[in-house]
Amino acid sequence: MIDTRIVTVAKELPQYWRSTEEIIPFINIWLADEEERFRRKVIKIFEGAAVDKRYGIMNIEEVFTATSFQDKNAIYVREVKKLGKAVLRKALDQSDWEADSLDYIITVSCTGIMIPSLDAYLINDLGLRQDVVRLPVTEMGCAAGISGLIYAHNFLKSNPGKRIALVAVESPTATFQLNDHSMANMVSAAIFGDGAACVLLSSEADAKGPKIVGEEMYHFKEATHLMGFDLTDNGLKMILDPSVPETIAKYFPDIVHPFLSRNGTAIDEIDHLIFHPGGRKIVQTIEALFGNLGKNIDDTREVLRAYGNMSSATVLYVLERFMEKDIKSGEKGLMLSFGPGFSAQRVLLEW
Is 55 exposed, middle or buried (0-12, 13-18, 19+ CB in 10 A)? Predict the structure, then answer.
């Protein structure tokens, strides 16, 4: 039997960052023409988002400057190339792999548009082989970090002795809509930040790290309206339905328990929860569902606090924290993320 092992996880952050406290004055200027009551409501959303600071590919003054979709996307393309190169190089160095030893590269991003996709530039910049297999993953939002792991596992379990790099680079900052005063835009501005992550996986016999023992996707029916982007003349406009947390809570037993059962385990045998921190309300929803089972999602909450929601890359930041822990052989971890579709992505790990 061929095992898929997660060898290493690395992260890379943009150069700019601000605390939530430092962002509040910009919100007051931004919403100066709105009623004071509305401004106070938005500020409370930012203060209650459970995000202490967030990173960005551009300085905050640039974020709050009216520019075209073309201008913002050009910044996205420029900076995503830098972050992708840096995070892949860091992961390769951590694992002592050469770039030309990669057989497959998966790149993940939904917060901008670039053709050729990021992987093409990484092939040139880092000297990957000319026969490396490319898979760009777009339009899957926050779920795509785990989607990438699923695609990697499906390749590796059929191909012994191979190596994959999964690179997720996101910039929700580049999608910020200055003229959109909807609650969806306010909430997304309050919870999202920019960041990059890279996971190296292997099906080599001597590979070390937790193995993927199960993976599945779960697609909610008639729920495409819950989350996503509208492509407008001003860029990518956030769609974020307020019923997302209650929808997750309603279907949570169907998402978790049958998946674990099909993989010969149960929730009381799961030692580690590696969940995507979609936002404070989703974290609270998940916490309430697992609290009675004696489980915690402290690492998920801490990643949200320190970086915000970085779309697909965020769950990989949570995974990195577990890769740094001294976890005993045989312990199990459940990875979970939600994204447009509406869908839930799940991976079962064993150390």
Answer: buried
Fold of 211-350: Peroxisomal Thiolase; Chain A, domain 1 (3.40.47)
CA dihedral 91, 93, 97, 101 (to 10 degrees): 70
- Cβ–Cβ < 8 Å for 213, 263: yes
Question: Is the dihedral angle over the CA atoms 49, 33, 194, 231 positive or is it negative?
Answer: positive
3-state secondary structure of 304: helix
Cis check: omega of the bond before 342, within 30 degrees of 0:
yes
For residue 234 the two structure tokens come to 């001003």
Domain ranges (residues) in the chain: 5-202, 211-350
Cβ atoms of residues 110 and 312 within 8 Å: yes
Sign of the Cα pseudo-torsion (184, 189, 191, 192, in order): positive
Q: Measuring CA to CA, which residue among 167, 195, 171, 203 is closest to residue 88? A: 167
Bridge partners (DSSP) listed for residue 236: 231
> Position 232: which residue type?
T
- Please tell me if the domain spanning 5-202 has the same topology as the one spanning 211-350: yes
Burial class (CB in 10 A: 0-12, 13-18, 19+), 345: buried
Residue 221 three-state SS: coil
Tell me the pLDDT of the chain (351 aa) as tens digits. Answer: 789 999 999 999 999 999 999 999 998 888 888 888 998 999 999 999 899 999 999 998 888 887 888 999 999 999 999 999 999 999 999 999 999 999 999 999 999 999 999 999 999 999 999 999 999 999 888 899 999 999 999 999 999 999 999 999 999 999 888 888 888 888 888 889 999 999 999 999 999 999 999 999 989 888 788 777 878 777 777 777 777 777 888 888 889 899 999 999 999 899 999 999 888 888 888 787 776 677 788 899 999 999 999 999 999 999 999 999 999 999 999 999 988 888 899 999 999
Superfamily the domain 5-202 falls into: Thiolase/Chalcone synthase (3.40.47.10)
